[in-house]
Fold this protein.
Amino acid sequence: MTTTEAREEPLSIGEVAERTGLSVHALRFYEREGLLVGPVRRTSGGRRRYTELDVDWLQICVKLRESGMPLADLKRFAELVRHGPGNEAERLQLLDAHRQRVDAQITALEECRSVIAWKVGVYAEHLSRGEAGGLWDPTARSNT
């Protein structure tokens, strides 16, 4: 069997769930919500049969959702891809706006990590000197 033939072998919903990390329920939801770029093929018995292209697309969708892309934006992106060539500028605009949101989240998380690292250092230093008692003790009363 050649690589091309292997790529053409249809995959079950369970196999796609395993490869994408999505549950079977989530895969059905993605299909129902129009998040796939093409129709999912079915066997004569009605079982879903996915392609490698479906898996590749779903892996992109997973990363976009994990990074916080709103469902409405993901739907719009899928719709644009389904319509084919001619709307690349709109796709770029949608993806770039999302990238900017992700960049802002990363910056905010880096600032949070910096504060946490500073607090870890304060506690570690006080504990190593045996001076941690009363460190930020909310039950301690001030004499002021």
